[in-house]
Amino acid sequence: ATIPVSFTQNDPNADGEDYNHIDHGVTQAPYERSFSPYDFNGGTTLAISGPDYAIVAADTRLSTGYQILSRNVTKLHELTSKCVLGSAGCKTDIDQLRSVLDINQKVYHHNHRKEMSTPSVAQMLGNTLYYKRFFPYYSFNVLAGVDKEGKGAVYSYDAIGSFERTPVTATGSGQSFLIPLLDNVIKHNNRNDEKRDLPAEEVVEIVKDAFVTAGERDIYTGDMLEIKVIRASGITNISFPLKAD
Q1: What average pLDDT does the chain have?
Q2: How many other β-carbons are positioned within 10 Å of the β-carbon of residue 213?
Q3: Among 44, 105, 132, 243, which residue carries the largest CB count within 10 Å?
Q4: 7, burial (CB in 10 Å: exposed 0-12, middle 13-18, buried 19+)
């Protein structure tokens, strides 16, 4: 049935209803136009500390909604020779955050003629995020490195700079799949067998299995896994293929 509509004069229908006030999306009702400066580009990061090493890992998929924008975008960024930042969230905010951190690192190096220690980098990152607390970087970060004693140091952050040193952490779209596994296998929570120090090579294999597991349930995690093993002697890079669908 066709509804009679008039835009020029009142023309009530036989049932007494006036269809002149039907909103046809032209002039009747106010329309809200919204814009968000943020976009969640997916991906997962992970960091684990050991007795003389730290491991940080992330996938390389860049997504928005149900679209894969790129299959080869790193989420890891080396800040010093002993410290690596892993970030998931909005790609543009992550790039800006990296630029600010790099500038601050260069200023420190020029002033003190040495690179920052890992705990100092951790504090600088927390301060940088907190300065933007009223318009935060949409970036969820993990920081991994070794401290002055050569021990592994991993730091977990929220979006506005609150952080803590922790044995394991993960952020991003696959976080909820990784954390329970790490709590059990790495932190040894709720287990009766004796806890032992895991060598870096064994932890790398656990990380590979963890990302394969996350990729089975999270559409934003996939393509390629980047792993960095950080020791006092330097950083070792490892790549591992993940699902491409």
Answers
A1: 90
A2: 15
A3: 44
A4: exposed
Q: How many helices (H) and strands (E) does the chain have?
A: 4, 12
DSSP letter string, 132-195:
TTTS---EEEEEEEE-TTS-EEEEEE-TTS-EEE-SEEEEETTHHHHHHHHHHHTS-TT--SPP
Backbone angles phi, psi at 77, to 5 degrees: -140, 120
In this prediction, residue 2 carries a pLDDT of 60
Do the Cβ atoms of 143 and 121 come closer than 8 Å? yes
For the chain, what percent of residues have pLDDT higher than 90?
A: 84
Does residue 154 contact residue 171 with C-beta atoms inside 8 Å?
no
Q: Would you say 19 and 124 are in contact if contact means Cβ atoms under 8 Å apart?
A: no
- Per-residue pLDDT band for 6 (boundaries 50, 70, 90) equals low
- Residue 1: per-residue pLDDT: 57
> Measured between alpha carbons, how far is 123 from 158 in angstroms, rounded to an integer?
13
- In angstroms, the CA 235 to CA 22 distance is 66
* Spatial CB neighbours of 169, under 8 Å, sequence gap ≥ 6: 46, 47, 142, 154, 155, 156
Mean pLDDT of 124-152: 96
Helix (H) or strand (E) holding 49: strand 44-49
pLDDT band at 183 (very low <50, low <70, confident <90, very high): very high
Does the pLDDT of residue 69 top 80, yes or no?
yes
Spatial distance between the Cα atoms of 195 and 42, rounded to a whole number of angstroms: 34
